Amino acid sequence: MTMTHRDPLVAAYFAVDFQNGVTGAFRECTGLGSESQVVEYRATDERGKPILIREPGTMKYTDITLKRGITDSMDMWQWRKQVEDGDIDGARRSGTITLYNQRGEAIARWTFERAWPQKLNGPTYDAKTNEVAIEELTITHEGYKRVQ
């Protein structure tokens, strides 16, 4: 049997596009995942021996956290304000997260449904460092899938 060697994808940056709003390049993206709760029950096999059966229960999608250098764009702040003002239906957006390599080629893509900004953190300021100020957006959603 011949195995094909595939190099891992090297990430340069993530681009995010939420329908009707937030777009941009992010330096960090975490939380693209899901998990199933485990349902356990005890039973007996045909010989009366006790066994433990573990089945998948409710599936849960993890929240997605995005970090980018702060700019003069107010898109994330305006989106979060919709939730703060109680307009959750207006704030829900589907979107795409695309991973690019160093040549700017799309190498992986995820789509997600009905997302809204759960949390938004502005940058921490430290005038003694020579670093870019980072803002952080956490979104919750109702499902995602990898499409590329």
TrEMBL record:
Q: Which domain of life does the UniProt lineage start with? A: Bacteria
InterPro entries reported for this sequence: CHP02241 (IPR011747), Phage_T4_Gp19 (IPR010667)
Q: Which GO terms describe its molecular function?
A: structural molecule activity
Among NCBIfam families, the record links this protein to: conserved hypothetical phage tail region protein
Q: List, alphabetically, the PANTHER family matched.
A: CONSERVED HYPOTHETICAL PHAGE TAIL PROTEIN
What's this protein's name?
A: Phage tail protein
The record lists the organism as: Deinococcus phoenicis
